[in-house]
Amino acid sequence: MNVDIIGDVHGCLDELKNLFNKLGYEWNDGVPEHPEGRTPVFVGDITDRGPDSIGCIRLVYQMVIEKKNALYGPGNHCDKLYRFFLGNPVKEKHGLETTTAEYRELSSKEQKEIRHHFMKLIDESPLYHILQEVNAVVAHAGIKEKDIGSVSKKVRTFVLYGDITGETLPDGRPVRRDWAQNYEGNRWIVYGHTPVREPRFVNKTVNIDTGCVFGGRLTAFRLPEEEIVSVSSSMPFVEEKFRY
């Protein structure tokens, strides 16, 4: 298995298509397929903040559920949208409001279809992926070595939100520990969640959320090649959103 692990898309559909093109994918009935059979793996947070979250849901659903030529794991934004679709009380802010606004513009038939597709995508995807063939784990905000293979409530919180302390920054973002500094495993941990200006390699971990929706880049990490491929964002650059 050769994989292309794709960082946080956040509704940036045009950049996602550009990235597939740069990675050498060919389009068949609107779905990207690699001539050498490579497998895209989405690190989560395909929606919110960007201009076309509904389009991203449609494309990822086609790839993962219909064509079965890609893998997906949820991020914290995906989890919140899922709870919105369940009818749970969630605050429509921190990006969710852009997705729900798009959703409300759809016809009732399209709304039902998108809701069904997104919930099926979540329901039929694992919390994180253990990719034995390329000696890697793909988890939205990361995972501790000792927790690989577990899906407890504590592990779920870590995978979706990172190593949070319970404190918040002045802008409302949670304070997170830099868990990658203490990682000593020999498997790649490929994650996103926290925007960084460049892919951040620490021990055998790499953060590939290069902040596409904040004007950075959309990045893929190719395994087993250990190669970074990125495309530029069309969004305005928002410097304060980048941690490193």
From TrEMBL:
Pfam families referenced in this protein's UniProt entry, alphabetically:
Metallophos
Tell me which residues make up the Calcineurin-like phosphoesterase domain: 1-196
> What GO molecular function annotations does the UniProt record carry, in alphabetical order?
phosphatase activity
GO cellular component terms listed in the entry, alphabetical order: cytoplasm
CDD domains xref list: MPP_Prp_like
Name of this protein: Bis(5'-nucleosyl)-tetraphosphatase PrpE
Q: Which organism is it from?
A: Halobacillus yeomjeoni
Primary gene name: prpE
